[in-house]
Amino acid sequence: MNTTWGEIEHAGLHEIRGPLVLVRGVQGVGWDESVRLRSTSGDTRAGTVLEVDRDLAVVQVLEGTQGLDLEGTTVGFAGEVLHVPVGDAWLGRVCNGRGEPLDGGPPVLAGTRAAVGGQPINPTLREPPRDPVMTGVSVVDALTTLVRGQKLPVFSVAGLPHLQLATQIAAQASAGDEPFAVVFAAMGLTHADGAAVIDALEERSARGELVLLLNTADDPVIERLLTPRIALTVAEHLAYAGGRHVLVVMADMTSYAEALREVSAVRGEIPGRRAYPGYLYSDLASLYERCGRIRGLPGSVTLLPVLTMPAGDITHPVPDLTGYITEGQVVLSPEVHARGIYPPVDPLASLSRLMRHGAGAGRTRPDHLDLAAQLLAALSRSRQVRELAELLGAAALSETDQQYLDFEGAVEEGLLDQGTTESRSLDDTLDRAWQAVGRLPRRELSALDPLMVAAHLDVAADRGVGEEP
Amino acid sequence: MSAATATTGTIARVSGPLVEVEGLAGVAMFDVVDLGPRELPGEVVSIRDGVLTVQAYEYTGGLRPGHPARARGEPLSVPLGPGLLGHVFDGLLRPLSGMPAFLPPRPVGGGTTPGEWHFEAAADPGARLAEGDRLGTVDPHGAMPLPILVPPHVSGELTWVAGSGTYAADAVVARVGDTDVALTQRWPVRLPRPYRSRGYDARPLHTGQRVVDLLFPVARGSAVGVPGGFGTGKTVLLQQIAKWCDADVIVYVGCGERGNEMAEVVSELSELRDPRTGGPLAERTVVIANTSNMPMMARESSVYTGMTVAEYFRDQGRHVVLIADSTSRWAEALRELASRTGTMPAEEGYPADLASSLAAFYERAGEVTTLGGTVGSVTVIGAVSPPGGDLTEPVTSQTERFVRCLWSLDHDLAYARHYPALSWTGSFSRDADMLGGWFIHHGDPEWARRRARMSGLLAEADRLTSLAELVGAGTLPGHERVVMLAGRLLRLVVLQQNALSPNDVTCGPAKGAALGDAVLAVVDQCERLVESGVPATAVEEVDFGPLVRARSDTGADDAEGVNALLDEVLKRLAQLT
């Protein structure tokens, strides 16, 4: 990738173990430097320097070491850490997890290169996130608004349509009239899933608004550690140099973390919780923290990591540490899924911590925040009432509680449930929310200004929809 | 520090942040070594057979065997002087303002905030001065005058002192004995700063959070652990305390936390006014921002850096609150370091000395008589982020042993949108008894009795609520239903606090006491009614609205307003008879 390789290619390896190659007799090789290996049969592979001890370099081979031998393999060192080309040339491209074309096109070239590791953003120059990314997905836009510069993960379990939801958001998301792009980093996806993603995002790709990096489940595991880093490096340039609002979708982070664990085990590191390395938090943070907005620069980087919780366990290290770093979470629920609702989001377990800055007057609609708070409060009561009804029987409920009993169902059917290619406008979404809360007695709408209630519900009764100038 | 003392060696091995250096003599453990051509700082973590193992504070990509390594001849030290308050620093106390948007690996550097400060001498040449005596003051007429003191271990005759004027932060302004004293003094972060004696006169740190001030109070100079899983509102609670507690100086250490959150803290602190000085709250605050993607070793040092800054202000007779969010990230950095150096792991991979590291950190809290004879304090509030919300994990369980107060945040309360989600069953305050004595002589003799009654009612209400879930509330006798009502009212009226409501964001001692007393008065009245034969259902159906809204309808110090609303509710109850 536009890298000038060192003149000297070292021949003769010392040892090969798992994805690691030990090279003796090296000089002037730096840690984390990028490496190119050429096997006896002539194919080349990429690697990085894991450790350099006097004249011995330990190299981690990205594509795996299958077919490498001690005698015929040559090793070249780049003299710098791994860089990728960055620029608009990435838009509209489909590449593998190392950034090599899968779409039959030429290699991605650009005048500017950047180190994939990135550098931490100076906290004093961070602009607190303020404006929404509209996803066209009602439950997200209404109740857990995604804010530009935020990191908001989707927590799911195997068998739920999280990938479909992530793809739908990637296809539909926009930032008003401002330039927008999506970088989709697929990690450990099956070929079928990968094909579905390519298919669903075809239109966006054709418009030149998409970069797709596809690491499939049978690709080398180490490559998976690189995929999100390339995606973020490309995204940062599209955002801060290109002035775009960039949404980076990373699916599936659990596959990423498992790759990290596998590599850590090969390196012989002391395992931490559930055998994940002790630096899992720092490593995840080095990805998630690359979102944000920067004072004085246009654009933003917004992150939507998707992760499956093994056995639905939210205390598993991957969702747990993710939750500590990210700014909220969208939680998918098997119960909601079983009721045939798509997307099967559990609104009460979901939260967007930055929503109060990114929604409301001047951002989305003046009634948005109060409406969302009222809807969630009513939903919480609805759930309590349902539990009570299961214990005591619905007949024992008070008249008010009776009206709460079917509220959750109304929200799921009226607001949550939507087609996998259906993009709803914010007005449509919020009007649906009004219709849902409108089923409750007026005295129960204590979080809402009575004037606002009258404006939305009384007019809605006449026209069948809510009203907002 | 100076070129004359530096010796140079050669890098032999690089494995991530762990670097081996050969040929460097006369270097002590924990001394700082500058690595490679970019002079990346690192700390000596082991010495064996002429080979130093150095843990780098920065990303070491590109560092290679053969690169030079220079010893600085001192352990990690930070510059303490003017330009700390109101500014943001990284974990090594390097100023972040003025740095580029993306932070490159960089040397330790001088580290002072650029600018000039107005200094006025307070001692005359010829005077005999001891350590901790005042030489003069920077910005003597500002909101936060900064005393310049004779450094620890220095004493003698003041042979020269600079005249009033403006000076750079590193300017020498006096000579005591044969030691030059500059506006800015360096101090090694891992070494606690000396003081004359420790004091144990308990007086409360008023936090403005009712659940803390009324139930789990903290004394100045005490140590608090705040465990809570993600989403329990830990950071919001700590930020509220940073904004509204009655300390003189706040040192806020963001240790491995979110960058957007640090940006939020900084921007909110610059917008909010300090009620005592009228200036921005930022001017009493030092922010140390080590976000979670900054190098791990700088995270390890950031809590010590923050503590050293806190002690510096303590030594000037200030009452300082050090907030560390989160100590778990610090402990994880210790674990990562131990794992890389091949130390034998103990519980969950943490090093065996985790407990002593935590103890040493929390023991740097305290109220002291300073070397200069004034009284200052450092109160430490450390957040703990237990993995999976598991409170039995090593960092949480060890922290509990060394702190005097524990504010345990509860996931179920947060889920029910009860904020601050401070659990009254899982928290404790070992300062409460002592502080009860203080309140007797300082205007609130009822404090301890009120606390005992509220705790009792909350515990009894919890017990009855779980009973009622089994048998139905209707089957409980009237007075027990009043206890359940009392628990509900205490939660809604006293314990919950809305960080977004201008009136409720903080709460003065008088209003807090009035709210507590109001609920207890209503509960007493309800008990009397039920005893006199009024059905419990009738009591429960009374509209307690005015009382529930009291915290957001009255100003932060408006006890009178609370009492007026109480009267309204008592009148409604009176109509039941």
TrEMBL record, chain A:
InterPro entries linked? ATP-synt_VA_C, ATPase_a/bsu_AS, ATPase_F1/V1/A1_a/bsu_N, ATPase_F1/V1/A1_a/bsu_nucl-bd, P-loop_NTPase, V-ATPase_su_B/beta
Q: Which Pfam families match?
A: ATP-synt_ab (PF00006), ATP-synt_ab_N (PF02874), ATP-synt_VA_C (PF22919)
Q: Which GO terms describe its biological process?
A: proton motive force-driven plasma membrane ATP synthesis
Q: Which SUPFAM superfamilies match?
A: P-loop containing nucleoside triphosphate hydrolases
Name all ATPase F1/V1/A1 complex alpha/beta subunit N-terminal domain ranges: 15-77
Instruction: Name one cellular component (GO) term.
Output: proton-transporting ATP synthase complex
Give the molecular function GO annotations: ATP binding; proton-transporting ATP synthase activity, rotational mechanism
| Domain ATPase F1/V1/A1 complex alpha/beta subunit nucleotide-binding, first and last residues per copy | 136-352
Q: Where is the ATP synthase A/B type C-terminal domain?
A: 358-450
What keywords would UniProt list here? ATP synthesis, Cell membrane, CF(1), Hydrogen ion transport, Ion transport, Membrane, Transport
Q: What does this protein do?
A: Produces ATP from ADP in the presence of a proton gradient across the membrane. The V-type beta chain is a regulatory subunit.
Q: Which NCBIfam families match?
A: PRK04196.1
PANTHER family given in the database record = V-TYPE PROTON ATPASE SUBUNIT B
Family statement drawn from the similarity comment of this UniProt entry:
Belongs to the ATPase alpha/beta chains family.
Protein name (database record): V-type ATP synthase beta chain
Native source organism of the sequence: Nocardioides islandensis
The protein's gene is named: atpB
Automatic annotation (TrEMBL), chain B:
Q: What are the record keywords, sorted?
A: ATP synthesis, ATP-binding, Ion transport, Nucleotide-binding, Translocase, Transport
Matching Pfam families: ATP-synt_ab, ATP-synt_ab_N, ATP-synt_ab_Xtn, ATP-synt_VA_C
Q: Where is the AAA+ ATPase domain?
A: 220-406
| GO MF annotations in UniProt | ATP binding; proton-transporting ATPase activity, rotational mechanism
Protein's GO biological process: ATP biosynthetic process
One Gene Ontology CC term in the entry: proton-transporting ATP synthase complex
Q: Does the keyword Transport apply?
A: yes
Q: Which family does it belong to?
A: Belongs to the ATPase alpha/beta chains family.
What PANTHER family does the entry give? H(+)-TRANSPORTING TWO-SECTOR ATPASE, V-TYPE PROTON ATPASE CATALYTIC SUBUNIT A
Q: What is this protein called?
A: V-type ATP synthase subunit A
- What is the organism of origin for this protein? Nocardioides islandensis
